[in-house]
Specification:
Layout (H helix, E strand, L loop, with lengths): L7 H16 L3 E8 L2 E9 L4 H6 L3 E2 L2 E8 L3 H5 L4
Parallel strand pairs: 2-4
Antiparallel strand pairs: 1-2, 3-4
Amino acid sequence: MKTKEYTKNEVEDKIHEICIDQIEEEYRVFWQSDDSGLHISVYYEVDIPKLAEQLLTNDFMGRRLILVITPKGFLNAFHPLG
């Protein structure tokens, strides 16, 4: 049985919904590529919130998702909002 393939916008919208409404920690979402192909990276500072580990699984809406830890201040310094 073929599963529904979600668009990038649908996947990002769902990630934003989860991160804003439930996790409430600063984050950034990036589409990246490596030797295994296209994937989503969700960046957090200092540590990964426990709820993020539960809600943002490796196979998220049929896409590979990777949670990334960055140093404190990294997101605002290198990926400021707006």
